[in-house]
Amino acid sequence: MIEYICIGKIVNTHGIKGELRLLSDFEYKDKVFVKGMKIYVGRKKELEVINSYRHHKCFEMITLRNYFDINQVLKYKGLSVYIDKNDLVLDDNQILDRDLIGLNVYVDEVEHGIVTAVRDEGNSNKIIEIEYNYDIVLIPYNDVFVKNINIKEKRIDILPIEGMF
Predict the structure, then answer these.
(1) What's residue 165's pLDDT?
(2) Last residue of a domain, one of 87, 105, 122
(3) What is the bridge-based pairing of β-strands 104-107 and 155-158?
(4) How close are the terminal C-alpha atoms of the chain, in Å?
């Protein structure tokens, strides 16, 4: 079964040869914007294949297989782009931010809440939002504070900041 992950939005075309301009904040662009990657476009999830990729300014620029003219790709302008999670091959230490949501948070083997969000604060700084006793606790998402993540056990072990809990 396909599990769709949104990787960006087509904001415009570029040139006359069918190149598409995407805005994407997907954390593993190097894994999805590659030649031969299957993508699904729009609400109807039309299957397409990336033919070429390049980064330009703040945009991801792609062409699609069998499209060679701007008039062929105009139909995709303004639509979201998805991939099948099963097509995404991550390294052992790579985890999608969305997979952290719902994990139980542990400090010294004692449960201290649940992850409710992962915030991107720019400059590669991310914050994990934890709900604990109806309060929101924020911790930096880095190796100093996050000691272990186990998706199968739905568990994340953290080193607390003094006064956090």
Answers:
(1) 65
(2) 87
(3) parallel
(4) 40
| 8 and 82 part of one domain | yes
Alpha helices (H) along the chain? 29-32, 70-73, 97-100
Side-chain half-sphere exposure of 11, counting CA atoms within 13 A: 10
* Closest to 106 (Cα-Cα) out of 98, 117, 114: 114
* Residue that terminates a domain, selected from 87, 108, 143: 87
* Encoded amino acid at 157, one letter: D
d(CA 76, CA 63): 12
| Domain carrying residue 25 | 4-87
pLDDT digits (tens, 9 = 90+) for 54-78: 999 999 999 999 999 999 999 999 9
Helices (H), 5-113: 29-32, 70-73, 97-100
What is the tally of structural domains in the chain? 2
To which residue do tokens 């590659």 refer?
Answer: 34
Residue 125: give its domain's CATH number. 2.30.30.240
**pTM check: above 0.85:** no
Q: With H, G, I as helix, E, B as strand and everything else as coil, classify residue 129.
A: strand
